[in-house]
Design a protein that fits this description.
single chain, about 180 residues, Nucleotidyltransferase, domain 5, six-stranded mixed beta sheet
């Protein structure tokens, strides 16, 4: 029996949002697409969120991923930046859930640990390891794109038989909201 799955990884952002898609065939990883959604030309935050949603739907319609792995916002000192990042993440999650795609959230440390073996690795180290693992040219990519690809690869690694440590997988928006009451307004 052939296991065949497409995983979409997302590194959320309101200026640059990274995405990466991998195709898993018999437990082997094949990179499908990697890129960014550039949003710096839009001044209005709400318009940026709309563009994120539209582009996410376009990527989902084009590649038909089976699962979405998304990087969780990290807790920083700038509350406004974190709020905007959380909104971008929420819009990406909503787009996936609107297409009935289950989502799993991973901390940046978890993704870095999964890819490099070091939870404090730099973005450049993650990109270099992905280049080595997948044979892709990461030098021409935004680090947001390679971080997104890292989320997808991390998700694949976490869901191999006998591996634990993935955060909960959500099959609906209601399930996500119920499990994350502190994220509700």
């Amino acid at each position: 029996m052939t296991k065949d799955k497409i995983i979409l990884g997302i590194d959320p952002g309101t200026i640059v949002m990274g995405y990466g898609l991998i195709h898993i065939i018999d437990n082997k990883i094949k990179p499908l697409s990697i890129g960014v959604i550039k949003l710096d030309k839009y001044d209005d935050h709400a318009l940026r969120l709309k563009k994120i949603f539209e582009r996410m739907i376009g990527i989902i319609d084009e590649y038909k991923p089976d699962e979405l792995a998304i990087e969780a916002p990290f807790f920083g000192k700038n509350v406004q930046s974190m709020l905007k990042l959380g909104r971008a993440q929420g819009v990406a999650i909503a787009a996936a859930l609107s297409k009935n795609i289950p989502i799993t959230e991973y901390s940046p440390k978890k993704i870095k640990m999964s890819i490099t073996g070091n939870g404090n690795a730099s973005k450049e180290q993650v990109a270099a390891m992905l280049k080595q693992m997948l044979g892709i040219d990461t030098e021409k990519q935004y680090l947001d794109a390679t971080d997104a690809l890292g989320a997808a690869v991390c998700h694949h690694f976490q869901n191999k038989p006998g591996v634990s440590g993935a955060k909960k997988n959500y099959g609906s928006w209601k399930a996500f909201v119920n499990d994350n009451p502190k994220r509700k307004a």
